[in-house]
Amino acid sequence: MARIVQKFGGTSVGDIARIQNVARRVKAEVDRGNQVAVVVSAMSGVTNQLVDYCNKIAPDVAPDYDQREYDAVVATGECVTSGLLAIALQQLGLQARSWAGWQIPIATDGAHGKARIASIDGAEIVRSMESGHVAVVAGFQGLGPDNRISTLGRGGSDTTAVALAAAVKADRCDIYTDVDGVYTTDPRIVSAARKLDKITYEEMLEMASLGAKVLQTRSVEMAMKHRVRVQVLSSFTDQPGTLVCDEEEIVEQELVSGVAYSRDEAKVTLVGVQDQPGVAAGIFGPLADANINVDMIVQNASSDGTTDLTFTTSRSELERAVKVVKENMKVPHRSISTDKAVAKVSVIGVGMRSHAGVAQTMFKALADKGINIHIISTSEIKVSVLISEEYTELAIRALHTAYGLDAAA
Amino acid sequence: MARIVQKFGGTSVGDIARIQNVARRVKAEVDRGNQVAVVVSAMSGVTNQLVDYCNKIAPDVAPDYDQREYDAVVATGECVTSGLLAIALQQLGLQARSWAGWQIPIATDGAHGKARIASIDGAEIVRSMESGHVAVVAGFQGLGPDNRISTLGRGGSDTTAVALAAAVKADRCDIYTDVDGVYTTDPRIVSAARKLDKITYEEMLEMASLGAKVLQTRSVEMAMKHRVRVQVLSSFTDQPGTLVCDEEEIVEQELVSGVAYSRDEAKVTLVGVQDQPGVAAGIFGPLADANINVDMIVQNASSDGTTDLTFTTSRSELERAVKVVKENMKVPHRSISTDKAVAKVSVIGVGMRSHAGVAQTMFKALADKGINIHIISTSEIKVSVLISEEYTELAIRALHTAYGLDAAA
């Protein structure tokens, strides 16, 4: 017997027929002799409707109305789904009961609208599971220190599932979604992309934060911290998905596991900056104070006493970033230029920790296609390059082939 | 300063604009210097949608699925409205917070789907009101002994409001609805019907149970028990409504306060029943066991050792009632006849306790119009007659005039 936590997103529980379909999947797991807890999202469209109500009732200040009331309104969507799924499971002859976040309870830090889970008391829910009941848990919500409902922010149901799996010491947390796993890269760009059987937490974290929108970044962090084995799989097929797990569980580790990309990039270059101590601090301090996320940074040494300093930020923040830099620029410089037509492409793999030459393969593959690299950034398990956006697909395909990731035809 | 509980039903909070309108009404009460708690229903249509989901997910057993899950699903509607109204109130510059039933808590007996309020701990909500916050309470729900949400059954928000008013020792409970008060009779039948300024609990209870669907019967019982002054008024006008209160508060008590009627009546007559001890018990025992509500009963003495026994029940239960009587009829009788074309008309007034001749005025008024009386039934504060349905309007108009209830032209 194993203990499994399953999570179904809004599309999987989008209408009555789909909720009944989810019930059959849960039953299949119970029939295998397993104890099951299910975390559900709101039916697709419901959360948007509820958020829309809030925005319309306070149009002048939206979305800066009382987040405690926002939470009270928006968290109801998941409660509806959990009650309905419990009924559907009972219809299939199973014992089941629904749990709202406050009933378990899932304690949060009380940062309404974007709360983090502080702790989950798994005792009562484990008792219920051990008495033969499927636990159907409303995702995305918990109870703050003020005894009021707090939501975890969009996508919080993934985090609920992983945190619950940690709390009840589950053997696995299955995240059902509309894709059937994690791929070596975006299959819409590379038709030879392969589904990975396994991927490490560290790699998944890089993939998630680099734009592969399969799992919420926060849920991967939590899985890594508590060593929860997470499987990503499709709720519309019966195929096994991708297991996110410890490095030790992966016998044949590839050098590079995947190629990720992000188009939400913009580049800012300060030209002819006086080359003196404190320049970087004078530029990036104000940006940090303005809560603007800076990703890659590069500074070119020069011979004439000046230097060019380039950094990247997300496109939506570009305008604000330039404004902050201009207003705080006390260091002499010639000009500021910006470029929004850029993209970041990254190769990711824990295998590169122990292998040299991984970056060199990347540079050569890109050079062979005539692709110019604007910026290079590396970490222990990834190499990222900023290139002109028009080369994005070409670069991804070239790298996918260069690292031997293409599926056999 | 007074402490007021206001209650707004589904139509009054039917959309965003109406919720904003309700917020303005609440503000007017606060501007008068009063402490206010507001009880809200779900937006009109929402509860039906949620019940429909439950029925569709368990079509084979509906509505006999797990009522605990039904409650978890259906109670969310009121939580949405209370959160939205709290935001709307804040938009008007007031301090406000929403309360779900479990947060107050409103303790129920745990009869899921049709729970009764066991007790309300008013301490925390009073503290919040005294700190200057409007309390916005989700109606229709509470927390059962099993720590799960239980709903009070349809119309339960009236009961929530009255019970809350009792718990926080409110000076008045204002029930906003789509009519502007309690009338001497149905204004659709008698154009000269008058709105009553005040009515006693006892009279209101008779009016409510006799078909004047202004207030939930249970909420009036609760108001009477806890001596909560209840005002029924319209959420669409600015007129004062009808105050339901103690007899002592009504200086000039009318002899008769109103004329009520019910068309949901059916008559069953057992003809030529052997006149012997135990006959009534033999007939009405099985009906009670079958949970069939019997209202009026009349037995005519006879000379030939047999008697005719007539009783009334609601039309929807007529068929079942006849079946039960036939299957259990051990007493010799000639035949059973039924009549669905009947109506009950009643005159109600606490004044008749101390005045003779009230019934006589009724019988004469009906006789003058040639209306035959099938059955007469009386209580301390009402006289009811069963008549042929076709005379209903005629009878109501005649009685309304006979008791001097017509408004001055």
Summarize the structure.
2 copies of one chain form a homodimer. Chain A is of the alpha/beta class.
Describe the structure.
The structure is a homodimer of 409-residue chains. The first copy, chain A, is α/β, with parallel strands linked by helices and 409 residues long. The first copy, chain A, folds into two domains: 3-247, Carbamate kinase (3-Layer(aba) Sandwich), CATH 3.40.1160; 259-402, VC0802-like. Helix content of chain A is 33%, strand content 27%. Chain A has twelve helices and 18 strands. Chain A has helices at 16-31, 46-57, 67-74, 76-91, 123-130, 156-167, 201-209, 217-226, 279-289, 318-328, 358-368, 392-402; strands spanning 3-8, 35-40, 95-99, 106-108, 117-120, 133-138, 141-143, 149-151, 172-177, 198-200, 230-234, 242-245, 258-274, 294-300, 306-313, 335-348, 375-379, 382-388. Chain A has an eight-stranded mixed sheet with strand order 3-6-2-1-9-11-12-10, with helices on both faces. Chain A has a six-stranded antiparallel sheet with strand order 14-15-13-16-18-17, with helices on both faces. A two-stranded antiparallel ribbon of chain A has the order 4-5. In chain A, a hairpin with a 7-residue loop joins strand 11 and strand 12. In chain A, helix 1 crosses helix 4 (76-91) and helix 6 runs parallel beside helix 8. The two termini of chain A are 39 Å apart. The model of chain A has no long low-confidence stretch (mean pLDDT 93). Chain A binds chain B through residues 16, 19-20, 50, 53-54, 56-58, 60-61, 65-66, 68-73, 76-77, 79-80, 82-84, 86-88, 90-91, 97-98, 100, 102-103, 147-149, and chain B through 16, 19-20, 50, 53-54, 56-58, 60-61, 65-66, 68-73, 76-77, 79-80, 82-84, 86-88, 90-91, 97-98, 100, 102-103, 147-149.
